[in-house]
Write a structure and sequence with these properties.
The protein is α+β, with helices and mostly antiparallel strands. Helices cover about 25% and strands about 35% of the residues. It has one domain. The strands form two sheets. Strands 5-4-3-6-7-8 form a six-stranded mixed sheet, covered by helices on one side. A two-stranded antiparallel sheet has the order 1-2. Strand 7 and strand 8 form a beta hairpin.
């Protein structure tokens, strides 16, 4: 059982995908798709992602380096996902780099949130806005 900010979780098979993407005008380029089998909920995976992005700036190496750093940091709990697979999971997170800034959005049950900064997304995940 894990504890996140005073909430106890039993590891559950709630799957999620994290898409690391770069946006340049109308073109969106995907650098990596990461699959997590357990605890895909925003107050676990989303919060962890927001915290990682809060202390990991995107630098001149770009989105590829940021995705590689995330993968290295989480190497025992994640898998890489094939690009050609169009399937989505229950929770789908999008890390989007545009003009040197990072935004995050989430898709759940076909509904997408707005794009948020890591700080805004952390608040979104912590306040359980996603639950409604």
């Amino acid at each position: 059982m894990g504890k996140v900010k005073g909430v106890y979780h039993v590891a559950m098979g709630t799957h999620s995908l994290i898409f690391f993407q770069r946006k340049c005008g109308d073109i969106i380029r995907t650098y990596a798709i990461v699959y997590q089998q357990l605890d895909g909920f925003p107050d676990v995976v989303g919060l962890d992602l927001a915290e990682f992005l809060s202390y990991t700036p995107i630098d001149y190496h770009g989105m590829g380096a940021l995705a590689a750093q995330f993968i290295a940091d989480k190497q025992n709990i994640i898998y890489l996902y094939p690009f050609e697979d169009e399937e989505k999971e229950e929770f789908n997170y999008y890390v989007i780099a545009e003009d040197g800034k990072i935004k995050i959005k989430i898709e759940q049950d076909g509904k997408e949130s707005k794009e948020m900064t890591p700080k805004e997304f952390k608040k979104y995940c912590t306040n359980k806005e996603w639950w409604s």
